[in-house]
Design brief:
Elements lengths: L5 H10 L1 H12 L35 H10 L12 E3 L4 E3 L2
Antiparallel strand pairs: 1-2
């Protein structure tokens, strides 16, 4: 949910209905958050039970397409079968289990 609280959601729908509708439509699909880092204020968000939050360090050029596919389709099939490599998000290298 793109609103900080139920009160803000109610206010936005009463005072800025088009913007509120657009926010709800855009954010329902999920995806990558855009905005400042925690150091610069972050992005205040509200999530609901069952949603996952992924650390910024875990998102990189190798993992982002996977996350986007899971978010869009609800599943991910690793092409070619076999074990999915585990990536170390800190140094972006493959680790062996």
């Amino acid at each position: 949910m793109p609103f900080k609280s139920k009160k803000q959601r109610k206010w936005m729908h009463a005072n800025e209905p088009e913007m509120a509708k657009r926010w709800e439509k855009e954010y329902q699909k999920g995806g990558k958050a855009k905005g400042p880092s925690h150091k610069n204020g972050g992005i205040p968000i509200e999530v609901e039970g069952g949603e996952y939050i992924i650390k910024k360090d875990s998102v990189n050029e190798e993992t982002e397409p996977i996350l986007e596919k899971i978010n869009k389709t609800g599943k991910f099939n690793y092409k070619g079968g076999g074990k999915i490599p585990v990536f170390d998000a800190r140094n972006r290298t493959k680790r062996r289990k």
